[in-house]
Automatic annotation (TrEMBL):
Residues 24-253 form the KIB1-4 beta-propeller domain. It comes from Ensete ventricosum (Abyssinian banana). InterPro entries: Gal_Oxase/kelch_b-propeller (IPR011043), KIB1-4_b-propeller (IPR005174), SCF_F-box_component (IPR050796). This is KIB1-4 beta-propeller domain-containing protein.
Length: 333
């Protein structure tokens, strides 16, 4: 779980359905002006990004840590779109960190390979034909409009720090594909094997207010959308149909649960784990943590997590599989 303070390792155990605290916060290097932020995970390893743009890889169960060599290019942090992580199922200590960067239509990716302990050369991506008539992958222009309440709203995505560069990495037909959200909220897919990227059609018109996130569930890319319409709020899960080239709804939260989000300016940050989707819904007023089980179409609001008698308010979550055998051999300083 990710909160504003980043001062504790707190997890929700889906097998035992309870909160746990991991006591390895002292292993985080203190040489940085800001605390590292968790940005990706794979297998038993979690990747953190420092305020300087470098990366740390942790096993939160054992406390082992590795600081990666600097690999950023000039201006990369300003043009970074997504961070993904891949670890081998058979060799859990072997991992790759993948960055998607650049300015549309000149997107590229870079890979850190732990077996070689080095950053590979940048690889350019070619844009495939789009279903929509205009591209929003990395546009610098921000549009503004008036909401129904009379507020001025910007069309660029406002994300929590942990989810700013979040993505999902899925193996499709033996090829790695990274999915992430553009600044304007469209879904972008990067096929690393084919060296191509594609922007999916937009869900709602650009002037609609809604919160959106991309998740991986049962090996598929899904999108969770919280929107408001006719004086109520709805939270729905969507899947893109390649046959019809359109988004299709696959699940919806019961209206009795989602209605309390209406008018709250809620932001959702989600993560997938097997057949489950974990949803952090938060605003300046309150927060909710919800688990959705796609296999049985069940939505459950989780109990509050209390630390020292105070309820924690989490802004995001990252899923990982506890694996003590996933070791990182280099020390963090």
């Amino acid at each position: 779980m990710v909160d504003h303070d980043l001062d504790q390792f707190i997890v929700f155990d889906t097998s035992e359905r309870n909160w746990k605290s991991l006591n390895y916060q002292t292993h985080i290097p203190q040489s940085h002006s800001c605390k590292p932020i968790p940005v990706a995970a794979s297998g038993g390893l979690v990747c953190y990004r420092t305020d300087s743009g470098n990366f740390l890889v942790f096993n939160l169960l054992t406390g082992s840590c590795r600081e990666l060599p600097p690999g950023s290019l000039d201006g990369e942090s300003q043009n970074l779109h997504a961070i993904a992580m891949y670890s081998s199922p058979t060799y859990p200590s072997s991992f790759k960190i993948i960055l998607v960067l650049g300015k549309s239509p000149n997107l590229a990716f870079r890979v850190f390979d732990s077996t070689r302990s080095t950053w590979e050369d940048e690889v350019m991506l070619i844009q495939k034909a789009e279903s929509s008539s205009e591209s929003h992958v990395a546009g610098d222009e921000i549009l503004y409009f008036l909401s129904k309440a009379g507020d001025v709203v910007a069309t660029n995505m406002q994300r929590s720090a942990s989810k700013q560069y979040s993505s999902v990495l899925i193996t499709e037909n033996g090829e790695l594909v990274i999915y992430f959200l553009s600044e304007s909220g469209t879904v972008v897919a990067c096929n690393l094997a084919q060296k191509t990227f594609f922007e999916y059609p937009r869900f709602l018109p650009i002037y609609f207010e809604y919160s959106i996130d991309v998740v991986e569930c049962k090996g598929e890319m899904l999108v969770v959308v919280l929107s408001e319409f006719l004086e109520t709020a709805s939270l729905r899960v969507w899947k893109f149909s390649k046959e019809s080239q359109s988004w299709q709804q696959v699940a919806a939260m019961p209206p009795s649960m989602s209605h309390e989000f209406y008018g709250q300016k809620m932001d959702i940050n989600c993560t997938g784990c097997q057949e489950m989707i974990f949803i952090c819904a938060s605003s300046s007023e309150f927060s909710r943590h919800i688990m959705f089980n796609m296999a049985v179409d069940a939505w459950v609001e989780l109990p509050k997590c209390y630390v020292d008698g105070k309820a924690k308010e989490f802004t995001a979550a990252i899923s990982f599989e506890p694996r003590p055998e996933a070791t990182v051999v280099h020390k963090c300083v």
